[in-house]
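User: Could you walk me through two proteins back to back? I'd like the raw sequence and the structure tokens for each, with a short line separating them so I can tell where one ends and the next begins.

Assistant: Of course. Protein one, sequence then structure:
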Amino acid sequence: MDKSSMIQKVKSYIPPLDGSSHKGQAGRIGIIGGSLEYTGAPYFAGISALKVGADLVHVFCTSSAATVIKSYSPELIVHPLLDHPNAVNDISPWLDRLHAIVIGPGLGRQNKTFEVVSELIKTIKSKNIPLVVDADGLFLITQNLDLIRDFNSPVILTPNKIEFERLCEKVNGYSELNKLGENIVVFKKGQTDEIFCASNVAQWKSNEGGSGRRCGGQGDVLSGSIATFLHWMTSNEDKFNMSPADKSIASSISCYAASILVRKCNEKAFRIYGRSMVAGDMIEFIHEAFQELYGE
């Protein structure tokens, strides 16, 4: 797919700001992550989803992370349920309200948390909700690939270089990634972003924009942005009847839309802050970068 056709496709799915919609239609996004050590990641993912254009973001985190995340922004709806005794039962009813879910930002690697998230993935699968998996969510998936087998909804995995190598080792080489599942897209992040999936039509590479700065949090900005675009790309479709190729294309274009947006934010922030740039500086440029790429 060439750049111009993908950008035009993205533009055609962006909901218009014409006053015809109600709160929530532009996206209700879920972020499953946030732990004692990691509170910034779910914030970056959630606030980026909002600033790209989602209406509401729900963060499901451990109780130790909730107050901290709430203090970062009043825009995020924070649920301190991830470490509750009945976490799966407490969280599952909320999932029905969500259009797309990101698992992983700030999740941590506690065994009990992984047990809860494994059950939530099964629930997400049964509810046919588009899913983005990043960070420690990828660590969990790589340990048990069966968790994402036979998903009917689109699934996007967003590994960095190390996570990608770990995933490839698990499946016996990158050439085998397309056997993960026909609705699964792997978005390899790096100096050049690249898509791996079963559909050749949906594959692309891009090194547009960006900088040499590799501060933490950029992947979280990306995963939240992908979630909003993924909702837009699938909101007017019958997710149960979309063909695997259509789902792969929707996922791939969502990744491309977020990739060039976040890389442009990186480029703009780096131009001002240079070596001192951090992920929060990039968020300031989401609106400007979005307008330049996609208009209002």
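----
Protein two, same layout:
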Amino acid sequence: MRSRMRVLLLVLAATVFVSNAQTNNSSNDNKQQQQQQQQQRSIWDESIKFTTKTKDSCTMVVSGAGDYTRLRVSCKGPSQGQTPGRSYYCDFQGKPNLCRAYNLNPRHYFTQMMWELRKLSHACQGPKVYRTQMCKKYPDEAQMTFLASWPKITTPKPSKPVQEPRKPVVPAQTKPVTTPKPVKPQPQQPVKPQPGKGPQTKKTTPKPGKTTTRPTEQPDSKASRIASEYCWKSFQGICTYVISWFQN
């Protein structure tokens, strides 16, 4: 009987211990869930505000879009006199929950992103992908990526240099080679006698010697002789040819 009583007491003690452990675990789980919900509320409900380099007042609001986390950055610039300041916004999207550090402190993740945004003159004209320091090693899927903006940001295309119309290349005209014209031999004009003076005849005394009969000149030698007398030295060959042609 005593042994049976001891067994019953041990069983009761074990069941009480197990029930206490389960209640403690459930309470711890509830506390963690409440902390996560508070952290999510702090980033999902409370916006982050900052000012850009050009004094634009901006607000960061986080929302959910299915499996993605979406961020909208809305900004308004300072008014200049009666002209109201510029207004613009841009959306970012990603899966930062893939990063372990984000799940521990999501608000600090977007705070680090805000540190980069406030360095810009225009909050929507920054990098396309923001890599925070706490999730820098994770892939692009876990980063916040630029999605859209209003008004639409257009990057001006570089203007093409105006090409001047090419002038048609005129081929250089080659001057035709002009062959020098043959110089016609001018006949010698007889010397006119001066008035009052009769024709003077020089008395020539024939020198005694052997009389040799000259052979008849050939047309080529005669033409060359005339060319050497009446043509320049550089044109004597052409003149000889023309004179011999006329003689033949």
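Helices lie at 2-44, 100-104, 106-117, 219-230, 236-247.

Let me know if you want the two compared in more detail.
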